[in-house]
Amino acid sequence: MKRTLDLSAAVWRKSSYSDGGGTNCVEVAEGHPGIVPVRDSKRPDDGSVLVFAATSWTVFVDGIKK
């Protein structure tokens, strides 16, 4: 059974790794236990969101920091 994630009230935060020049902009929605919704901040209204397991996202971010 596929569940639909309601992100209509999500609070999005732009990544500190975004370059600020209109490219490479990623936002994450906080407050969703166990998952991390991610979207392109240049296209916030198109509905495209990737959802990662929180553990996978942590590994990804730790890799970027290194």
Task: Kindly describe this structure.
The chain has about 70 residues and is an alpha+beta fold. The chain has one helix at about 55-65; strands at about 10-15, 25-30, 35-40, 50-55. Strands 1-2-3-4 form a four-stranded antiparallel sheet. The longest helix has 12 residues, at about 55-65. It is flat. It starts with 11 loop residues before the first strand and ends with a helix.
As a whole number of angstroms, the C-alpha radius of gyration is 12 Å
By DSSP, the count of extended strands is 4
Q: How many helical stretches?
A: 1
The stretches of 5 or more residues where confidence is low (pLDDT under 50) are none
Strand order of the largest sheet: 1-2-3-4
| Strand content bin | 25-35%
| Helical residues, percent | 10-25%
Shape: flat
Main beta-sheet strand count, sense and barrel state: 4 strands, antiparallel
Q: What is the chain-wise order of helices and strands?
A: EEEEH
Q: How would you state the average pLDDT, rounded?
A: 83
The separation of the N and C termini measures 38 Å
Structural class: alpha+beta
